[in-house]
Amino acid sequence: MADHSDCPSAAGDGLLPAELHAWMLMLAATGAVEQELRGVVKERLDVSHDEFLVLCLLATGPREGLRMTRIAELLGRPKTRLTYQIACLQHAGLVARKSVCGDKRGVEVALTEKARNLLEEASGTLAETVKAALARFMGPDQRGALCALMPELAEESKAE
After folding, report:
1. CA within 20 to 30 Å of 115's CA: 35, 62, 64, 159, which one?
2. pTM for this predicted structure
3. What is a single molecular function from GO for this protein (predicted)?
């Protein structure tokens, strides 16, 4: 368990609005978790963290896939960078691209069965990595920040 005594307070010093301060605390915690996850993603899936995010997005989307423009929008990535990532994933046999019917410029991307199998095999380890890292890096201030950003979560945890 990490020592959270030097973590910034969820209350802040009043310079930032509470919501912005809470968001910054959440970014710090999720950044630390992301760093831990990078190595496991590379070892288990042999892809970069950004490519992993694409795979996760496709795994939660419709089975027929998503348009490249939508993926770029949801991940906040430039289309040129995404094009490179999709090319790498396609080369690895993890995604398939196809033209969108009736739109000659539109491209849709979907997971291959190989990717689905890999994600299924690795998902337990990846989930455990995230849970352990959150337990290590998310102190009471970060949990308070999460509840400040999402009050319904705080209400649900009180009800349990």
Report:
1. 35
2. 0.76
3. DNA-binding transcription factor activity
